[in-house]
Amino acid sequence: MEFKIGDLVRLKSGGPLMTVEEVGERAMIGGEAVWCVWFETVGKNQVAKRETFPPAVLEVSSKPVLGTVRLTRG
Fold first, then answer.
1. In this predicted structure, what is the pLDDT of residue 65?
2. Which domain, by its residues, includes 18?
3. What's the total number of domains in the chain?
4. Residue 56 and residue 37: Cα distance in Å, rounded?
5. pLDDT band for position 66 (50/70/90)?
């Protein structure tokens, strides 16, 4: 599958919704790679995480999967 910058993707095994930042060759794996970014909650902050994946482990996700909403009173 061909990925484009801006595509929303997930690992085929599940996980967070990620955005493709770059697609290209990676010398260490000797082939195509997909650079992705996503956000994780750390304490009360959203922290950007980045990782590189081989295209074979990713699939395009057309929209976010709705999760649990937590409401708190201030």
1. 56
2. 8-60
3. 1
4. 17
5. low
Residues with Cβ within 8 Å of residue 6, at least 6 apart in sequence: 19, 20
Tell me if 18 is assigned to some domain: yes
Nearest C-alpha neighbor of 22 from the set 12, 32, 14, 30: 32
What is the chain written as a DSSP string?
A: ----TT-EEEETTEEEEEEEEEEEEETTTTEEEEEEEEEEEETTEEEEEEEEE-GGGEEE-SSPPP--------
Asked, for residue 35, whether it belongs to a domain, the answer is yes
- Give tens-digit pLDDT for 44-56: 999 999 999 999 9
The structure tokens listed for 1 are: 């599958």
* Residue 65 forms part of a structural domain: no
Number of Cα atoms under 13 Å in the Cβ half of residue 61: 19
